[in-house]
What we know:
The chain has helices spanning 3-9, 31-53, 57-83, 93-121, 131-155; strands at residues 158-159, 164-165. It has 166 residues and is an all-alpha fold. The chain has one domain (23-165). Strands 1-2 form a two-stranded antiparallel sheet. Helix 2 (31-53) crosses helix 5 (131-155) and helix 3 packs across helix 5. 32% of the residues are buried.
Amino acid sequence: MPDDEEDLLRPSLAPDFDVRRFERPWDPTNLPFAAFFLGPLGAGILYARNYRFLGSPRHARICLIASIAVTMAFALGGAWLIANGILTTKDRLIRYGTQGFSGVVGLVLTQHQRGRFRAWEQLGDPARPLLWPAIGIGLMGALGFGLILLFGLSLMGVDLSTMKRS
């Protein structure tokens, strides 16, 4: 058989792209809304779990590590801005910045997950419901963000009872 014909018979999909082994994933087109409202930590956990459901543990690890790093950067950066008097705790710039960033990154990750989800969709099974897991993970993510922010403020010498630098 000539080489050209052998190439036609060689599998072209990655070994981990076996839709029969995928767990029931969330529809990634719903995840950017969750990303916008949940912030980087909650969204990162949701996307990482969906990567696991879609049979891509490597992408799940990268997504989770990146979301933790981004959450720490936003929370500690916000703590620095508050500690140096650039922002107050009443300013919403930190929240709007994290929500906007999370929404944009969520759109990119949705595009990345869409191919695997479409392949899984061909099996005819319904997607996993997202509402209650998103609420639970979102609450944990918001709590984590708040704790990191408070930790950063206390590291920078801010008296948490008055929110003034000591």
